[in-house]
Amino acid sequence: MTLFVNNEPLEAPQPPTLAATIELLALTPLRGLAVAVNDVVVARPDWPACQLREHDRLTIIRATQGG
Known about the structure:
single chain, mainly beta, Ubiquitin-like (UB roll), five-stranded mixed beta sheet, ThiS/MoaD-like, Sulfur carrier protein ThiS, Thi_S, Beta-grasp_dom_sf
């Protein structure tokens, strides 16, 4: 199953959840992480229930601080 993460293709097992895909990408720590699926932001408590479909587009943003 092909997903697009920040416009890059990713082969994922079927059927992936958003939580499983975040784990697959090893995006730890999760603090400061925001994810949108097909341009709709998904709240972190909803990640385990969010089923992804073929060709879904994930936008992942990590908040950073600096000066």
